[in-house]
Design a protein that fits this description.
The chain is mainly alpha-helical. It has a single domain (6-34, 51-244), classed as Tetracycline Repressor, domain 2 (Orthogonal Bundle), CATH 1.10.357. It has twelve helices and two strands. It has a two-stranded antiparallel ribbon. It is elongated, with a radius of gyration of 22 Å. The protein starts with 5 loop residues before the first strand and ends in a 7-residue tail after the last helix.
Length: 265
């Protein structure tokens, strides 16, 4: 596997309308090769500490992807990140903890993209479609799949890592769970549990486990077709159209009263 790796994370340009939410790609290899800025002696600033942490995580991901979990070492990751070995031990403790942070970092990118979509304005069907598309793109990204394959491969020997990544599904899906819960309270969507609904949405958006074995569809047309089909499915399953129609009737009545329109004398 190539040493160059990238992960999709949201643009910092701010919010944008649904359907136009930007996604930029940050090259892990390019960030790791970036020369650390020379700082003054003493305690590092928050910005410097954050930059150092990202550099280590980028390097760790590359080493894990290239050598596998067992063959990877703290020493090798420190060399790749061009930092002292003691720095890794101070920040992460051991290799297992560092690998856990790499898995969470990969999932955090998916969550940030979902937050951009959920926070944007638009009809629920459009937001639903964008959530499906971002879930599909994030969970089928080569780096995310590489981390997932490593977790599966090491799940027997280190069940704690696999359990932690599974537990973190709520962390990743928190924006979706929150959005579905809010629409449920507004009467715009019919479902029993926002959390269960988010898990169902995520599983179908991913496309099952086949992408662990075959290359995911990466052309925009195929991804759009997948998102459209699932949007139709969940719109019907959650009675999104019917709920919106019900909510629109009182609004029309209120608007009519406000305009002074009435029937009869």
């Amino acid at each position: 596997m190539s040493q160059k790796s990238s992960v999709a994370i949201p643009s910092r340009a701010g919010r944008s309308p649904v359907g136009k939410t930007p996604i930029t790609v940050v090259k892990f290899a390019e960030n790791a090769r970036r020369k650390p800025r020379k700082r003054q002696a003493g305690r590092p600033t928050l910005e410097e500490a954050s930059e150092l942490r990202e550099t280590v995580l980028h390097a760790a991901l590359r080493v894990f992807m290239k050598r596998g979990y067992e063959a990877a070492s703290i020493e090798g990751i420190a060399r790749e990140a061009k930092v002292a070995k003691i720095t890794l031990y101070r920040q992460f403790g051991d290799k297992e903890s560092l690998f856990f942070e790499v898995t969470r970092y990969a999932q955090a990118g998916v969550k940030r993209n979902l937050e951009l979509v959920v926070d944007s304005a638009g009809p629920p069907q459009h937001v639903l479609r964008e959530m499906i598309l971002r879930l599909h793109q994030g969970h089928t990204h080569p780096d995310y799949l590489a981390v997932l394959r490593l977790v599966v491969a090491e799940s027997q020997r280190f069940p704690g890592i696999a359990a932690a990544m599974l537990h973190d599904s709520d962390f990743v899906l928190e924006p979706v769970i929150r959005y579905l819960g809010e629409r449920q309270k507004e009467g715009l969507i019919t479902l029993d549990s926002p959390r269960e609904a988010a898990l169902q949405l995520s599983c179908l958006a991913l496309g099952g486990t086949r992408y662990l074995m075959v290359k995911p569809r990466d052309d925009p047309r195929s991804q759009a077709h997948w998102a459209d089909a699932l949007t139709t499915l969940f719109t019907r399953a959650w009675q999104l159209d019917g709920a919106q129609a019900k909510a629109a009737k009182p609004a029309r009545k209120r608007n009519g009263s406000a305009n002074g329109s009435r029937i009869g004398p």
